[in-house]
Write a structure and sequence with these properties.
Blueprint: H1 10-16, H2 22-33, H3 43-55, H4 59-63, E1 70-73, E2 76-81, E3 98-101, H5 104-109, H6 111-118, H7 140-153, H8 165-176, H9 181-188, H10 195-200, H11 207-214
Antiparallel strand pairs: 1-2, 2-3
Helix pairs in contact: 2-3, 3-7, 3-8, 9-11
Length: 219
Amino acid sequence: FTGMRVAVSKKTKDQLREAFTTDQLRTIFTHLTLNPDNLVKKDEHKWGTLVGMFTGMRLNEVAQLEISDIKKVEGVWCIDVSEGGDNDKRLKNASSSRRVPIHQKLLDCGLLEFVEVQSNNPMNRLFPKLTYSPQNGYGRNIGRWFNEKLLPALDLKTPGLVFHSLRHSMATRLNQSDASEPKVKAILGHAQSGVTFSNYFKEGFKPAQLKAVIDKFDF
């Protein structure tokens, strides 16, 4: 049996993932922004992780972002999570298409200034140095850095903690803040349940409504 592995289903893998604690999130945030140990050397690692942390977006949703995806909608800065575009972006499923209001912390950290610097990129990609692979999309580089370098360096590496845990953390903190389940689903790109939301609520929540919810994510 040497070298053989038992396959683990995708559902089981997701169930094994954990949310980061508030202390762990503070530690990661400190190193992403202040970089006291010089662990962060690339813009895509810093901003890719910060966007994942404060939006709950999936890794490849973050990595494939285009500059034009950062836009104002009804006076609220949002990230347009969508398919197609100039770089053939792909989503997990239909409910993944959404507009995520940009968390105030991301604005305070200078995300819009970073976007402005990247605006001269002719590829229209927010992280133009990330390469594409058919199996992992654009997210492989950020994921490997976060999972295999940053977390071990911060002594946070466990089997249940990976980049996707940032998504679990967003869901956990928003639910703990008494945010309504339909609004949390709208932010995370989960399918709505019930006739009212799935069949009749076609326009969805207004950006300002979701901005008030996502800003409740705190640590």
